Structure formats: C-alpha cells, structure tokens
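name: query_chain
kind: protein
chains: 1
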Amino acid sequence: MEEENKVNEVNESQNTVKDFTYPSFMGRAGAYIFDGLILSPVFVLLFFVQGKLYTNESMFYPALIIELMFFIIQNSYNVFFTKRFNGTPGKLFFKFRVCREDGMPVTWETSIKRESIYIIRNIIYLICFYAFIAINREKITNFGIATYLHSETLLSKIENWLSFIIYLFDFGKALFSPKRITFHDKIAGTVVVYRP
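structure:
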C-alpha cells in the first residue's frame, strides 16, 4: 500500500488551511517511469533514424541535430505538461498534480525552473560531446565512432557521474522529506500532491 503524508498547509495570504496529501516516493517513481514509457516510442524512432545516419559521413551533422532533439523533446515534455495540465501524463495517470507551495497552479517560469537542473545537465553533456567532436573531427568518420570514442574518455565518465549525482541528489532528497519534495521542486517552489 502506498504511504501517504497528509499535511495541513496554512496559506497566510488568504488565512485558509489547505489539506494536501503527498504521494509516496514510490508513487512519484512510478509516475516518472510511466512518463519514460510514454516518451519511449519517440526516442526509439529518433534512435532508429540516428542509427541509420551513424555510418554515413555526409549525414554526420543531421545525426548531431537528432542528439539535440532527444533533450529538447524530453525537457519540453516536462515543461509543457507541467504548465498546461499541472503535471505530466505520468503524474496525471497516478492522480497527482504539480502546484506551487501555496496551492496555486504552476506558471511557465515555475515550470522552467522546475526542469532547470535537467536542462543544465543536458546542456553540459551536449557542449562536452560537441567539443569532443570538434577537437577530434579528423579521426571521426561517422557518428557511431564519435559516440564510441567519446564514451571512452575521462570527460564522458565525469559526465556520467555528474548525471548520477544529480539524479541521486534530486530524488534522494524526496526520500527524507515528509512532503516528498525533490531538489527540482525546491528550486521552483513546487510540490506534488494528490488531486482533490
């Protein structure tokens, strides 16, 4: 059975009490996995197209653009659905909603702030990957070789550890918070609660 945390929130500006019920850590993880399943067909299609371009030298730069599209789609999905519907399809499926700490709906600015650590992580990855390609362009004949050579570098290993630490720190925070607030919630001033 899912653990729930019910907390009375006082909205000082309106002098009212809001009853929020916060989902468990596993409930939030389930919503995250559900969103991954929704995005999977798009990513599989992009991966398939990118794979076809891997070995063709003249298609090197379109393959790089597809790499960029992976991150744009993922970040846009989270920002758009959180603002427009108060949660991604995964959260809505589990009957959660994202709102500001005062219970008000999320704004575009708040939604972008909420996704900011992942946007920054993706930008760092792309800069490192593109810089690696620019420096080693003479040795690289196709995108597949670029991906493999980059994966063997110290820089790639640092990027992987950085990603791991970001995810661990972000979602690990929710384990120890009675409201199950992640680091990206804290940045944006948001909470994930059950829909009334």
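note: The CA atoms of residues 139 and 184 lie 39 Å apart.
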